[in-house]
Specification:
mainly alpha; Four Helix Bundle (Hemerythrin (Met), subunit A); Arc Repressor Mutant, subunit A; 2 domains; two-stranded antiparallel ribbon; 11 helices; 4 strands; 60% helix; 6% strand
Length: 254
Amino acid sequence: MSLNIIKTVLISRFPSQLVDELLDCYQEQKRNYFLGNHRPTEVEGGRFSEAAFRMCEHLAGFSITQIGKQLDTDGLIRKLQGLATTFPDSLRIHIPRTLRVVYDIRNKRDAAHLADGIDPNLQDSSFVFASLDWVLAEFIRLSGGITADKAYELIKAITINAIPVVEDFNGFLKTLNPKLKVSEIILLLLYHCGSNGAAIEQLSLWVKPLQRKNLKATLLRMEHEKDLIVKQKDKFNITRLGILEIQSNNLVEI
């Protein structure tokens, strides 16, 4: 749902082809990051940047570089920086400079050729991961009619939608690994739900029938003994510790 809202907001201001390319790269980058595929994460960051640079051209009123044609990123950054100060600083300075770093990580950072022998792919992909969130939130905000806080809330809601082990059947969430324990299933479900969280009634529908009997006790233990989840009002959300549990145990793969 949040992804559809984001697409609708962006298409109100940007060409639909660029929006589709941007969001496809964004989701694929997230999927690769959560699977630990760091180099593909950087590749998708580069592709995201190519779409994003063209969206900057559109916002600035420049001719959009044809897709498939090499971008002159240096020239574009200079042109954007030279825009009148009536244009947002985000368009003139912050987005282009951020994109350039992401773009260069894809094109120029090759761990195999680093003299110090230290593989930088984890740190690079982590930077790309956070940068794409910020850039996408800025584009949503610059599309108009939405606050910066609301833009980032939308980003948070879709950040973890593309994990392979959870499939969404029109709102019914199904985990695709029969070996998962109930606590692991709960973590993955809440991970998928993002900032929206899930009520106990929803979780009861999504876990396996035999796991429903002790669900309340399991949730209490996960919240108060392990700090993996937290309940706010009537919904549960995953904590940073819960996310770390998923990542360290590689639970996102089928």
